[in-house]
Amino acid sequence: MSENNRPLNFIERIIEDDLATGKYTSIHTRFPPEPNGYLHIGHAKSIWLNFGLAQKYGGKCNLRFDDTNPVKEDEEYVESIQKDVQWLGYQWDGEIHYASDYFDQLYDWAIYLIKQGKAFVCDLNAEQMREYRGTLTEPGKESPFRTRSVEENMELFEKMRAGEFPDGTRTLRAKIDMASSNINMRDPVLYRIKHANHHQTGDKWCIYPSYDYTHGQSDAIEYITHSICTLEFEAHRPLYDWCIQNLPVPAEPHQYEFSRLNVNYTITSKRKLKQLVDENHVDGWNDPRMPTISGMRRRGYTPKAIRDFCEMAGVTKVEGVVDVSMLEYAIREDLNAISPRAMCVLHPLKVTLTNYPEDRTEIMTAPVHPQDEAMGTREMPFCREILIDQDDFREEANKQYKRLVLGKRVRLRNSYVIEAEEAIKDADGNIIEVRARVLEETLGNNPADGVKPKGVIHWVSARDNVDCEVRLYDRLFNDPAPDAGGKNFLDSLNPGSLEILSGCKGEIGLAQATLDDRYQFEREGYFVLDSRYSTPEKPVFNRVIGLKDTWEKAAS
Ligand code: ATP
Ligand code: MG
């Protein structure tokens, strides 16, 4: 959380109050992912908030895997989540925690509830339980098994644990209030039977605690002070509190809810992201078009830009959708400040400088960063044959076109002014080469005859350059709300979301690029080596983002 002058958000106000009144002397938060998928931009928000609050107030933040549903969970996800949290710039306090570390304790507390007459074993199946539950407007009905004796409940629960019953045949439920206006309080399920191997506990358990029964108690065991979650859990808070009040827990944590981060043109459901991966619509969880943290990392987004975006989006209880261009803005802001400049021609067109000697090479120098002298200078060889972008030459053009036109002048960035003399075409009429002449004495000066160039274009030497592939990305979905209102998000997949350009030519300094470097290719955007496909022999650059927002214009 950055120390800018924005007003405190509502959670910060609560924390500052709690510290001021002495309710707590220090705070302790946690980030509790379920390891059933890779983390996405929504989780980044939760990470930034929980770890950021701990940082800001000198507290601690735990990483706790909320691993109560072994069927969908996997060690692969456990590992990716740790990497993502650290990449975002955070470190959890002490050891990693797992809700499954507390299965023994949770089991003992379930027995405690049974002995207190506050929990019972129920034989209703899922469908019957739904019927008994009632609706938002009608109260539920009590289960016929609700009045079982403590002894019978103890015996049945023990048998559940011992594996004597098949999946789904019995549950342990809290005995609260079937007439409660809050459906979550209508005798909620605390344990279900699942004969499944667990990635942490193996085959030790065949009964697993519910999220609602696990979360608050895990918070209490870890002495979490502020348990922050998203708004959909607001209606679960009475149950969270009921468990804390009715169990001999060591602490009394409190749950606070904020609205989840939704971003337009983006899907933030692990299930749907997994579907994109499983059905090969994308190149894995870390496809650079994915809104996953690993995808954004491979795409070249920076941790700082993502944290800044979370901060800009704010923390409230109001449901809303954030414009993805806010994220893009944050990325450009950060990359503009830190990225070395380079020239790379994406669609090369040869220009022969007819009056430039065949055997001459000059070294042009340019700043690595126009606003940051400390980043030094770079060198680019200049010779008779250079490459410019095909889009930067026209035989004829109107005044808006400030690039090279036949018979007109343009400045080569960091180099001479040239004037186009002739366009050479192939049999199909495609321009395959431009012949031009260099205007002498125009390094750093305008032409002596006073006829100024129309604009500035980038170039590379046709003799000395780095041959590379460039991957241009567009939004993965064409629809601002790909999965809203029951829409099938696959219907709005953007068929043009990946464009691969080969034979691109970059300035020679790009041969030194590493996976950690992000460059601004002048006039083209920000680029980073692709961690999956790039090799030293054949660099592959991902476009992180363009220089300015062209989406709205292109789409309208
Ligand atoms: P599911 O539980 O359906 O698998 P989830 O997105 O809730 O999906 P969790 O692993 O439970 O995944 O999420 C971990 C934490 O991240 C939770 O505290 C959750 O509230 C928070 N979180 C998830 N999605 C968002 C979001 N879009 N915005 C903010 N926080 C989020
Ligand atoms: Mg969840």
Unreliable runs, pLDDT <50, ≥5 residues?
A: none
Fourth CATH level, the homologous superfamily of the largest domain: HUPs
Q: How many individual helices?
A: 13
* Secondary-structure content class: alpha/beta
Q: What ligand species are in this complex?
A: adenosine-5'-triphosphate, magnesium ion
Counted beta strands: 27
> What value does the Rg take, in angstroms?
31 Å
Share of helical residues? 25-40%
By CATH, the topology of the largest domain is: Rossmann fold
Q: β content, as a range?
A: 15-25%
Q: Under the CATH scheme, which architecture of the largest domain would be assigned?
A: 3-Layer(aba) Sandwich
As for the number of domains, it is 3
Spatial separation of the terminal alpha carbons = 36 Å
State the major sheet.
7 strands, mixed
Strand order of the largest sheet: 10-25-26-27-23-24-11
At the first level of CATH, the class of the largest domain is Alpha Beta
Shape designation: elongated
The residue-averaged pLDDT reads 96
